[in-house]
Each structure stands twice: as C-alpha cells, then as structure tokens.
Write a structure and sequence with these properties.
Blueprint: E1 8-11, E2 20-22, E3 27-29, H1 34-40, E4 51-53, E5 66-67, E6 73-74, E7 84-85, E8 101-105, E9 116-118, E10 122-123, E11 129-130, E12 159-160, E13 169-173
Parallel strand pairs: 8-9
Antiparallel strand pairs: 1-13, 2-13, 3-4, 5-6, 7-12, 10-11
C-alpha cells in the first residue's frame, strides 16, 4: 500500500524503512526530493535553493497547527516548550506558611528545634517575678521578625516537566503518492 508523500508516522523500529526518512531535522537535497520539497518547503529549515530540512521530532511531541481556544496559535514548524522548569515565587499558587506555637510554658531560650510557646515568668534583676507579655492586641507599631525565625523552603532546582513517555521513532514518507489538494 502506498502512502502519501510527507505523511509522518510513529515507527517501533530504530531505522527508516525504504521510501521513508527519520524525522531528525536532516537536510535533504531539493534536486533528489522535489516532490517532498514541494510539500514541506523550508518550514523546518534549509536554504530553499539546494536544501530543505525534515521535521526534527527527536525528543519532541507533535502538536496540531492552528488557533487555540485561548487565542494563541501554533504555526507550522513552530517549536517551543522546555524539558525542565524552575518556578519563581510569582508562578507558585498563593499559599500561606503558618506560624505555629505550643500552648505549654516555654522551657528553653534556644529557638533551634523549638516552637514559640507561652512565655514563662521571668525574674527581674531585683529578684521579683515579672510577667512577660507574649502578644499585643493592636497593630500600632509593627516590627518585622528576625529573618532567621522562619527558615527558607525549597532549593530552586529545576524539575521534570514531562508526563510519562515512551520513545518511538518518527518517520516521514519520501516516496509514494502525491497528495492532491481538496
């Protein structure tokens, strides 16, 4: 059965069968592939005088051309996307980091590994017991907490940005039926 010149298919082998070529971006001579060139042109590269390029689908997923529902557009031969992404704080969903405290009396002055808690009574230099106020009911004078009171989270490392995948070989028909326009 003959295929249309320019059709792209997935193939389970690691070679291109007769009358097919790998979709790996290779340059072909126009003189030896004029029918395919008349379909593909220089959309994928080449100088258009002596050479043209085949689509390069190595490590890529094919996407249909045309208008997107959201208003964007995919043009023939357009490439995009990235293999890994590092999110910035502007790209993360809004969220809170809750500051938690323990309701028992404090028993240490070292914050490492400890939680805020109900302050224990302090002793003034005169020897009298003094009550320590832990919270104020108004926000008249705000002061930032020591930056060391909350530690940073995350490592700013890029993460994988692909769903599970199976690598197959894309091939393009170089010899066959010339497709008629409808």
């Amino acid at each position: 059965m003959d295929e249309y010149i320019g059709i792209v298919k997935l193939f389970a082998g690691n070679f291109a069968p007769q009358n097919w070529a790998l979709c790996n971006g290779q340059l072909l001579a126009i003189a030896q592939n004029s029918a395919l060139f008349s379909i593909v042109g220089t959309v994928y590269g080449g100088d258009g005088m002596n050479t043209f390029a085949l689509p390069n689908l190595n490590g890529r997923v094919a996407v249909g051309t045309g208008q997107l529902a959201g208003g964007g557009n995919y043009d023939q031969g357009q490439t995009g996307g990235v293999e890994s992404v590092t999110l910035t704080s502007n790209e993360m969903p809004k969220h809170n980091h809750q500051l938690v405290a323990n309701t028992t009396l404090g028993n240490t002055t070292a914050p490492a590994g400890a939680l805020l808690s109900v302050p224990a009574a302090a002793v003034a230099s005169s020897g009298d017991e003094v009550t320590v106020t832990a919270y104020a009911s108004t926000a008249a004078t705000l002061a930032p907490m020591n930056p060391a009171s909350l530690s940073l989270a995350g490592q700013s490392m890029p993460h994988e940005n692909r769903p599970p995948y199976l690598a197959l070989t894309y091939i393009i028909c170089t010899q066959g039926l010339y497709p008629s326009r409808s």
